[in-house]
TrEMBL record:
Name the UniProt record assigns to this protein: Aminoacetone oxidase family FAD-binding enzyme
Keywords for the protein's UniProt record, in alphabetical order: FAD, Flavoprotein
NCBIfam families: aminoacetone oxidase family FAD-binding enzyme
Superkingdom field: Bacteria
Cofactor: FAD
RsdA/BaiN/AoA(So)-like Rossmann fold-like domain: residues covered: 2-404
Residue intervals of the RsdA/BaiN/AoA(So)-like insert domain: 189-350
Length: 408
């Protein structure tokens, strides 16, 4: 039996290794437009490769139907993934926060061991090759590149990802290939990405970083709240808190909804506690400049902006602040609101949302419900995970189920 896999990322490689281990008689060809496999694996975790997570459920995923992932997570849970890693010689470093990295702390080691497994299993890599269309003739698939035909495949897996990180040659070719077999897809969008905001002081705050609680409002309704690092940038906001919240924000932006965020710089304190701290501070050092005293609790850039928002002069003394002024400062520190208007785009996104509708794919085999012997796995499907190794784990798990089905 002859198998074609389009896309040599985590899902495609896992499917190939799984299928060949289960059926040594398979001929498997993996196609990829890059010079080598696993380009996105190499880029994940800033080169350290946040490869999985020990605590995973469908609550860690977003899509038209997040529960689609449950069968894959059941059959290929973290223990199964750990066993697979051992089988290729990869040892893992499991962190207290449940994130999982290779023990080497290098993504290169992951790709190197996967390459070794492909070579050992005699799986054929056809690299620097872009598949532009697929035909099906008398139950056989023919893959066409720009200058060559690859004929007579019994089964085809599309695992070519989506548009996140186009600088790594990421494309949406998989959607076009699926569409030729009557598949539909939900609009794609960048996920785990910085957000552009409508906020007049953003350039003045550029570079300011602080742990904060970010609350997302969609059409004035509270949607989700996340506490983590926040980074102000020239275009708006980034940092782990923003990457996490972007998954919900960008989806709403795509639906032309009103998207706002609220920033609480002191989530560990109540408003009254923060008010008491500032009142005591200003009273005990009343002859000092207010901006100087504020730098005791926030950065100098933020201290200056706080006074601007309160319409107070930059050289105002602490003793010149009245209770209304202080309450205004507290309100800004606990509820700084700004409108979200755009994202940093696919180039700066860690993942892509949207994709092939999961209603058209069998969640046990990852076979198309519309075309026999056509399969999908990984990011090309309308499933996107939270930050923390969840996207890579879905790639491994969906690739595993697809690989089992390909072997039969």
């Amino acid at each position: 039996m002859k198998i074609a896999i389009i896309g040599a990322g985590a899902a495609g490689v896992m499917a190939a290794i799984t299928a060949k281990r289960l059926n040594k008689n398979l001929q498997i060809d993996i196609f990829d437009i890059n010079k080598s496999i696993g380009k996105k694996i190499l880029a994940s975790g800033n080169g350290r490769c946040n490869i999985s997570n020990t605590q995973i459920s469908d609550k860690n995923y977003i899509g038209e139907n997040p529960s689609f992932v449950n069968q894959a997570l059941k059959e290929f849970d973290f223990k199964a993934f750990e066993n697979f890693c051992k089988s290729i010689g990869l040892l893992l470093d499991i962190k207290e926060n449940c994130k999982v990295y290779p023990l080497s702390n290098e993504a290169k080691s992951v790709v190197s061991l996967l390459e070794n497994s492909l070579e050992t299993l005699k799986i054929n890599l056809i690299l620097e090759t872009k598949i532009i269309n697929i035909e099906k003739q008398e139950e056989k698939f023919i893959l066409n590149s720009e200058d060559k035909k690859f004929k007579f495949y019994d089964k085809v897996l599309i695992s070519s990802g989506l548009m996140a990180a186009p600088q790594l040659n990421a494309t949406e070719d998989g959607l076009a290939l699926a569409s030729s077999f009557a598949h539909s897809f939900n609009p794609t969008y960048p996920s785990l990405v910085g957000l552009h905001t409508e906020f007049k002081y953003k350039e003045k705050l550029q570079g300011v970083k602080k742990e904060a609680t970010i609350t997302l409002y969609i059409d004035k309704q509270k949607e989700v709240e996340i506490t983590a690092d926040l980074l102000f940038t020239s275009y708006g906001v980034s940092g782990f808190a923003i990457l996490d919240i972007s998954q919900y924000a960008v989806y709403a932006l795509n639906l032309y909804q009103n998207v706002e965020i609220s920033i609480n710089f002191f989530p560990q304190l109540s408003k009254n506690e923060l008010l008491g701290i500032l009142e005591t501070l200003f009273k005990s050092l009343e002859d000092s400049f207010a901006v100087t005293l504020l730098t005791g609790i926030v950065s100098k850039k933020l201290a200056k902006v706080l006074l601007e928002i309160a319409n107070l002069p930059s050289d105002i003394l602490a003793k010149e602040l009245n209770s209304k002024h202080i309450r205004t400062l507290v309100n800004t520190l606990t509820n700084l609101r700004m409108k979200v208007i755009d994202t940093q785009g696919f180039k700066h996104a860690e993942a892509s949302g949207g994709g092939i509708r999961t209603a058209e794919v069998d969640n046990k085999t990852y076979e198309s419900k519309l075309c026999k012997n056509l399969y999908f796995a990984g990011e090309v499907l309308d499933i996107v995970g939270n930050r923390g190794g969840f996207n890579l784990h879905f790639a491994w798990a969906s690739g595993y189920l697809a690989g089992k089905a390909l072997s039969k």
